Amino acid sequence: MELKPVSPPPADVQVEFRKTLGRFCTGVTVLTAHDGPEVHGMTANAFMSVSLDPPLVVVSIDRNAHMHSLMGKGTKYGVSVLSHEQQPLSDYFAKRWTGEPPGFEIEYVVGTPLIKGAVAHLAAEVIDDYWGGDHTLFLGIVGYTRWEDTRPLLFFGGKYLQLTPD
Length: 166
Known about the structure:
Layout: H1 13-21, E1 26-27, E2 29-35, E3 38-44, E4 47-52, E5 55-62, H2 66-70, E6 76-81, H3 87-93, E7 106-109, E8 112-115, E9 120-132, E10 135-147, E11 153-156, E12 159-162
Antiparallel strand pairs: 1-11, 2-3, 2-6, 4-5, 5-10, 6-9, 7-8, 9-10, 11-12
């Protein structure tokens, strides 16, 4: 089947592709892993569940990101789903923050660093990786989960959104 565009192709396909995908509302996560004795984190919304049995997740990381160099088979990493109050942390870990870093605490569960106060936590271990163009998809087996019933931080159209209480 040949796909035919409904309108003339845009001048910059990558820009239009990014704008189009920005219409998909996502939660905001911070991935954390050890960089030697230090903890490194990055904001990511390219995160998804894969399987319940066994419990598997995928994170997509740009090949130029520092986090990419930390990930490999056997790497333990954390996924913290940010709450509606943690927007400054999203900006900080996305390197969009100016000034003093926002306050936050790292907590350790099963030896994995996680952002304290997040809506949900997962601790996973990379079991495989896959080529994804300018990104790598890291498949992880989940060894720990925790969640609480609070409002998450959302991202849509290049902006943060919040759920309103019922």
